[in-house]
Amino acid sequence: MSEKTEVDLTGAKQNTGVWLVKVPKYLAQQWAKASGKGEIGKLKIVKKQGKADVSFTLNEDLTSLSALGEKAASVRAPRDHPFTMHSVGGQTLAVFTETSAGNRLLPCSALGTTTGSDKISLEGMVVQRAECRPAVNENYMKLKKLQIEVSTKPQRLTEQMDRAVTNNFKPVANHVANVEYEKKKKAEGRMVRADRQQVMDMLFSAFEKHQYYNIKDLVEVTKQPVTYLKEILREIGVYNAKGTHKSTWELKPEYRHYQGGEEEIKSD
């Protein structure tokens, strides 16, 4: 419940008693079709031997069952609905309504489920429980048959296509990304080992520009196989396994030609 929600307990002060009635789903759907001021039916209460005989008759205008599809045109909703009465059974039940921002009255099943409504009103305390059931007749049996047909109708249907669908993805022997990766891998495998001193010269030249390099950049600079390149780097360089320049190579102190305070790194 929001902090701004007001609760009107006038119904409690007036000691208003209400009935809690369970109705069939189709009947609730028919009621929802009625206009705000329209008549949905008539409630008849007759006293018989000290007991109340209660029945509800649905308005003729609300017997159309358009919600069940085209077949419902030949079937009408049952009109006569006798009540089966039950006691409250020691329970304390109440009926609330909530006034939304648009000033519409909505049923409120629990106070904790309101969503920013302006006002909640207590309509009354439940003094009688009942169940509204349709009279079993030919019209009711037709309705049940139609409901079963609708509920068992498959939600998905198999359709045979006259031609292949061309706007979907088609299977390929290999994807573009995989082809490019294999091509790059083969190109690296074809790298020819250059003279050892020539490779060293290329490395010295690179390290004059930057103090730190990762192995991928050095492969790109020298065009040499990774295994061969690492073999040479172990002779003239130091691998930083941790620290600020983790996973990079730099020259051993005796091979450095740059100033001691310079700390540049070449990476992607």
From TrEMBL:
Keywords: DNA-binding, Nucleus, Transcription, Transcription regulation. The keyword Nucleus applies. Residues 16-101 form the TFIIF beta subunit N-terminal domain. Signal peptide: none annotated. It is found in: Nucleus. Its main location: nucleus. Gene3D superfamilies: Winged helix-like DNA-binding domain superfamily/Winged helix DNA-binding domain. Residues 192-256 form the TFIIF beta subunit HTH domain. It comes from the Eukaryota. GO terms for cellular component: transcription factor TFIIF complex. GO terms for biological process: transcription elongation by RNA polymerase II; transcription initiation at RNA polymerase II promoter. Pfam families: TFIIF_beta, TFIIF_beta_N. GO terms for molecular function: DNA binding. Belongs to the TFIIF beta subunit family. TFIIF is a general transcription initiation factor that binds to RNA polymerase II and helps to recruit it to the initiation complex in collaboration with TFIIB. This is General transcription factor IIF subunit 2.
